[in-house]
């Protein structure tokens, strides 16, 4: 069955860095787009980044652009999120999710998130 | 950016009763709308995609309706295990993918 297991979270000082990992199993990892979503304490879900199956296409939310970097290793079945210049407002539970494509009438694709991991907690505090 | 607005913020329903959750998009998202169930300490779970299609393994008591800007998630007969926060998400106009703020469903 599809499994996504995040790791790498922890307590870090403002301005610090972390690398989050998401280990995937139960499906052909290299066939799927992947994404990171976070949830700050007491808040809702916020999309922060996605990466295409080959890694050639990346996107970021404005709130993390220039500080976060997404990557993947299709040989190791692992998705990464490098997070730099951390701020207090980056404190959140970080989830990875698999993206499933949906063909639109116009011939282009849209993507929803069909499987999620349980998340890894990042706390930014001095 | 498409803004998603959910109502109500909290819904308290007795077991066996119907729960109706609403989601509105700031512009048309066609049928590119998903619903997720999120329980504390668990991974979010996809319930509905394409506004009306149930994901694999989702009980038939969950149904989605709507298109364009107005959407509804209905739980026909609420069970105790349905206590959770429910989020709608549009995937028509991306990036960014945007979520509603969530509706918390409580069991009376």
What oligomeric arrangement do these chains adopt?
heterodimer
Helical/strand content category of chain A? mainly beta
Gross geometry of chain B = globular
Q: What is the averaged pLDDT score of chain A?
A: 96
* Binned strand content of chain B: over 45%
State the separation between the terminal residues of chain B, measured CA to CA. Answer: 36 Å
Shape of chain A: globular
Structural class of chain B: mainly beta
Q: What is the rounded Rg of chain A?
A: 14 Å
Helix content of chain A: under 10%
Write the layout of secondary structure elements.
The complex is a heterodimer of chains A (126) and B (108).
Chain A: E1 3-7, E2 10-12, E3 18-25, E4 34-39, E5 45-51, E6 58-60, E7 68-73, E8 78-83, E9 92-103, E10 109-116, E11 120-124
Parallel strand pairs in A: 2-11
Antiparallel strand pairs in A: 1-3, 3-8, 4-5, 4-9, 5-6, 7-8, 9-10, 9-11
Chain B: E1 4-7, E2 10-13, E3 19-25, E4 33-38, E5 45-49, E6 53-54, E7 62-67, E8 70-75, E9 84-90, E10 98-99, E11 103-107
Parallel strand pairs in B: 2-11
Antiparallel strand pairs in B: 1-3, 3-8, 4-5, 4-9, 5-6, 7-8, 9-10, 9-11
Describe the structure.
The complex is a heterodimer of chains A (126) and B (108). Chain A is mainly beta and 126 residues long. Chain A has no helices and 11 strands. Chain A has strands spanning 3-7, 10-12, 18-25, 34-39, 45-51, 58-60, 68-73, 78-83, 92-103, 109-116, 120-124. In chain A, strands 2, 4, 5, 6, 9, 10 and 11 form a 7-stranded mixed sheet that branches. In chain A, a hairpin with a 5-residue loop joins strand 4 (34-39) and strand 5. Chain A is globular. The termini of chain A are far apart. In chain B, strand 4 and strand 5 form a beta hairpin. Chain B is mainly beta. Chain B is built from no helices and 11 strands. In chain B, the strands form 2 sheets. In chain B, strands 2, 4, 5, 6, 9, 10 and 11 form a 7-stranded mixed sheet that branches. A 4-stranded antiparallel sheet of chain B has the order 1-3-8-7, with no helix packed on it. The termini of chain B are far apart.
